[in-house]
Amino acid sequence: MKSLKDILASTEDVRESDIPDQWKESFNLFMFGQTCMVEYNEDGSFKEFIYYGSDFRRWYYLNEKSILRDDKINKLLE
């Protein structure tokens, strides 16, 4: 799985599956009511949401201190 920094550095749109579980709730609350894309399986069933990279970057910079703190803690615990 990509790290949030890797996703930030990319210019591509962000798949829901790329967001680490510990940050999904925060990101989903931020995205509530905003536009995103939906990817469907070949049979027409829902597959996953795809978010615009600009929305992800805005969320990242709003939460950057917490994200960097958690990254530092995780590295120390490894």
Task: Provide structural commentary.
- There is one protein chain.
- This protein has 78 residues and is of the alpha+beta class.
- It has one domain.
- It has helices at 4-9, 21-31, 53-62, 64-77, and strands spanning 14-15, 37-40, 46-51.
- The chain has a three-stranded antiparallel β-sheet.
- The mean pLDDT is 93.
Termini distance?
A: 17 Å
Helicity, in percent?
40-55%
SSE order: HEHEEHH
User: Got a strand count?
Assistant: 3
Summarize model confidence as the mean pLDDT: 93
Count of the domains: 1
Strand content of the residues, in percent? Answer: 15-25%
Strand order of the largest sheet: 1-3-2
Backbone shape: globular
| Biggest sheet overview | 3 strands, antiparallel
Q: What's the number of helices?
A: 4
Stretches where pLDDT falls below 50 for ≥5 residues? Answer: none
Label the structural class: alpha+beta
What features would you highlight for this structure?
3-stranded antiparallel sheet, 3 strands, 4 helices, 78 residues, alpha+beta
Task: Provide a compact summary of the structure.
The protein is α+β, with helices and mostly antiparallel strands and 78 residues long. Helices cover 53% and strands 15% of the residues.
Secondary structure elements and their pairing?
Elements: H1 4-9, E1 14-15, H2 21-31, E2 37-40, E3 46-51, H3 53-62, H4 64-77
Antiparallel strand pairs: 1-3, 2-3
